[in-house]
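Interim report to the steering committee. The following record documents the input for Glyoxalase-like domain-containing protein (122 residues).
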Amino acid sequence: MTTEGIEAVFLETHNWGRAAGFFQALGFRLEFDTGHNSGQLRNGDGPYVFIAEIPEARELQAPRIVLKVPDADAFQPDPAVEVVTPFEDTHWGTREMTVRDPDGRLWSLQAPGGADLGDANA
């Protein structure tokens, strides 16, 4: 099994309201606001953009591109792919793996969370 393209772009900001407004002015619609200075926007059927506000004192990191995997349990990376961290459950209900490309960049792979994840958090 392989990835299915880009799932999302994760973006840090120092001002959630201004960043969300910028993307909305570009045609993105707000899918949800977490209520704590972050949220998800989407434009059409493409990848979503998740924006999270961080303190002014912290340096903004480059946007992080997340590749889509339909089933973490069925995913077997090619031996040429260096797995940095295997799939792990996230606090937002997905499973995430980190891999390293030949130039040393880290990539995130995201799959839907396990079927029992909701029960575990109930």
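The two ends are 31 Å apart (CA to CA). The committee is asked to note this result when reviewing the revised timeline.
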